[in-house]
Structure prediction request, 235 residues.
Amino acid sequence: MCVAPTAGPRFPGGSGVKTCAVCGIDLVRRATEAHWQFAARRCCSKSCAGRLRKPRNSQIKTRYRKISVNGRSVLEHRWVMETLLGRPLRREEQVHHRNHNRLDNRPENLEVVTSAEHGRRHTWRPTVKTCEICKESFVPHKKRRGRQKTCGKHDCRFAMVRLTRFGSPEPRRRSDSAVNTKPPRTHCAHGHELTAANTYTPPESSRRDCRICRRDRTLRFRQRLAAASPIGAAA
Prediction:
């Protein structure tokens, strides 16, 4: 038997002895359990905690009615269908309520369907859509039925991206008339005229630089380099 922490500033209202709220056995504090965790724990195990949260003898669980058959708790609608078929239901088979009332387990209201068909009957979104690019029919993913607009092909996906961003699904290509339409510069940023003698074009480039500005930059760089060197500072 384990003694819980007594009442104090950290454990207000603490008791002397802890017992399980379901089975009544004494609680033992675990080695990895803090004092405040042990003070808050009410059950000895996960099974007792589950029985405390949900009564064990409840007839309705997860919105379906349950009954006891040969000492076992089973779902009533599945047991009714297994009785009609004379065999257990397979793993991929599910029982569908035609009037969508989960508590109406009459045989005429039940129908055996596959898991995929059961999911399609319980969704309000369309299961077959038309691609907005190629206009072909496709089956969207079950988690993307609301937002999927294309069939999933590579061209259709990228065409939808272009349509959303640029307003047209066609790829954007630069025409010949749009290349080099900007008039050439006549002066540099410092106001020097870009004549044939004052223009420098680097090799393998179409950029036009001003020779006067290049000469001034080189001169300023050499002055800073000479001022930073010990020999230049001593001179």
Q: What stands out?
A: Residues 1-15 have pLDDT under 50 and may be disordered. The two ends are 91 Å apart (CA to CA). Residues 211-228 form the longest helix (18 residues).
